[in-house]
Amino acid sequence: MTPIKFDPVPQISVVMCTYNRATYLDKTINSVINQTFPDWELIIADDGSQDHTFEIVNPYLQKFHNIRYLKHQNRKAAYARNAGIQASFGNYITFLDSDDTYKSHHLESRIDFMLSHPEIDLIEGGYEIEEEFFLVDCFQPDKLISIKECVVGATFFGKRTAFFELRGFNDVSYGEDAELWSRAEQICKTYKIKQPETYVYNRSENSTTQTLLEQLTQKSNSQ
To answer: How do residues 176-185 score in pLDDT, each as one tens digit?
Structure first.
């Protein structure tokens, strides 16, 4: 029997950062497994979870050769995303927050766009939200901005070379995705898409944006 050759270089690397989100993980991971585009790897970058995250993840590791798991001490989103980028093999790199999901044709829609627009290095956008909400503007921390006006880092989809040229995400206190995008606009060919809305954004109760909004509200009320 001729052995089956496994190509270690997938077309797409999905980097999923997580921190104490065990209750969301089955739904999130399954949304990747159920993609219509099959040539992907999933890198789960655990940013120091203290819940039962590994117990949820481990059965997937045993069953799927293209799902990998790494864990480090809690260093926040920029570090976790960079760790996933460094561990990736894909020609294209994208992201998925651990409380969000992909629609089944998400990866297929993004790779189709990139292959039909080879001049583009990095895209963002195309996400579905249940309702509009406001969050702290990372460029003007005393103001609020609609999520629809924001750069959402989890929707980034780009060439591997672009992320390494940008040297990943910078460790800023808030808005590392907007900061990377602003740098990318200077040295890469970027494009914001609105359709198709195949990334499903879910704002969990302990998200960074929710926490900062609560802090700003408390600050305003105390003045």
So the answer is: 999 999 999 9
Q: Do the Cβ atoms of 122 and 40 come closer than 8 Å? A: no
**Upstream peptide bond of 118 is cis (omega within 30 degrees of 0):** no
Residue 158's SS3 state is: strand
Q: Which of 104, 98, 100, 101 has the alpha carbon at shortest distance from 56?
A: 98
Domain spans of the chain, in order of start = 12-222
DSSP at 212: H
User: Amino acid identity of 206?
Assistant: N
Q: Tens digits of per-residue pLDDT, 7-65? A: 578 999 999 999 999 999 999 999 999 999 999 999 999 999 999 999 999 999 999 99
- Considering the domain 12-222 in this protein, what is its CATH number? 3.90.550.10
Task: Please provide residue 110's backbone torsions phi and psi, each rounded to the nearest 5 degrees.
Answer: -75, -45
Q: How far apart are CA 89 and CA 120, in angstroms?
A: 20
**Matching residue, tokens 């060919």:** 189
Residue with tokens 């496994």: 6
Cβ(73)–Cβ(204) below 8 Å: no
Within 13 Å, how many C-alpha atoms sit on residue 216's CB side? 17
- Alpha helices, H only, 147-201: 160-166, 176-187
DSSP state of 149: G
Cα 21 to Cα 205: distance, rounded to the nearest angstrom: 11
